[in-house]
Amino acid sequence: xxxxSERVSYLRGLADGLNISxxxxxxxxxxxxxxxxxxxxxxxxxxxxxxxxxxxxxxxxDERLEDAEDFIYDDCDCDCDCDCDCDxxxxxxxxxxxxxxxxxxxxxxLECPGCGAEIELDSAIIDEDKSVIIxxxxxxEIEIEWIDDEDEDCCCGCCDHEE
Length: 163
What we know:
rod-shaped, 4 strands, 42% helix, mainly alpha, single chain
């Protein structure tokens, strides 16, 4: 028995203890009000029980969905293309199973040598390794020279970096 049903039962007992008679208009009204309150309390308890059952079902569905996601997608959330199956921590920039880094790199800025406008290059353009882009301000072609990080250690003179 729920809290509301207990309160309605208390009111019913109180009305019986006060010897409220069904013969008077007020007594009839009070008895009907108590009956209605009892029906409302029972309905609310049924809704609460159904809500609890639905929440349990939702929790079960959520757990099953997580299991399905783990099965369908690999556990590695890093943006590298290493196809690793690791538990990647977003707070850490390094993938836990390989030497790749997740830089959360979305764009970089480039200054147009012709008009000085600042141009944002997004990761899609950079991933395509385009060597020429067009400035949106002055429509001048800008040649981009990509520097490979591996060439930075080169000291043989075969690349353009400064020693």
